[in-house]
Amino acid sequence: MTILLTPEETAAVLPWQGLVDELRLVALDASVKVPARLVQPLAQGANLLIMPALDSDTAITKLITHTPANADKGRPTIQGDVIIFDVATGQRLKMLDGPTVTARRTAAVSALAARELASQPKGPLLVVGAGVQGKAHIEAFAAVLGTQQVMIASRSDASAQALARHAQSLGLKASVVQDANAALADCALTVTCTPASSVVLSSLPKGDSFISAVGAFTPKMIELSADLCRHFTRHGRVVVDTIDALHEAGDLLQAGLDPSAYPNLADILKEKKRLNRTGCVLFKSCGWAGWDLAAARLALKA
């Protein structure tokens, strides 16, 4: 059996619809346990992340580095692996490409949240950030939600144009916009997937907008202005991906908001705090090793 999967092989065992379905199962699985992840600072703003998770059958650890400075040097900002073990025997079963797992499970979580919460889950979609996550979100939203129209905003016009061409190759209507805040009014769905070094969205959304903010996963990172975050608390809804957002949702924390006050995605799926499909929704995604466990479980099924 092949143990170490390449990025291409990892993507092949994580089809979008199957991944979304497995994410839902993990969110509802009472046997899933996810210890707090370790984020070890490295030189020049980089981090080493160690993220374990397990259920009754499978245990995983994701070991990745996040090196923002690589973005300007043509190197990947996320590197590493997801190691899968059998709980009963301790045997190492597979090793998945870490950046591929991260990109696909993050985009699939956004698609799952949009499917459950968005008033208009088919879009149009605004993607702020034209990197790996921007590409993954376009693919996931098209495959899972049937999104047909995409607008792309990025600080790099070349990256935005390349991503637009990729979206067009998928059969989507895609265009590049210079002002993400102006485009927000025309899009029912928005995803912010930037390095989260500064605010990229500050305009107030229309009444039925859905925003998935995925770039910020530490208290010091930010993509959304404080006024925008507070707008959702007053005029819409806020949902976090997991309870771990309590310590990691930089957008909310810097707006003076308590992430523990909001329902998480598992609450929504369990219908304990079901929300109506009306009004604007902010989904704050910080990442969780449980989502990596879902990818591992799907990979083992393949």
Automatic annotation (TrEMBL):
One example GO MF annotation: oxidoreductase activity
Gene: ocd_2
EC number assigned by the record: 1.5.1.49
InterPro entries to which the protein is assigned, alphabetical: NAD(P)-bd_dom_sf, ODC_Mu_crystall, ODC_N
Keywords: Oxidoreductase
N-terminal signal peptide: none
Protein name: Delta(1)-pyrroline-2-carboxylate reductase 1
Transmembrane segments: none
A Pfam short name: OCD_Mu_crystall
Parts forming coiled coils: none
Assigned GO CC terms: cytoplasm
Top-level taxon: Bacteria
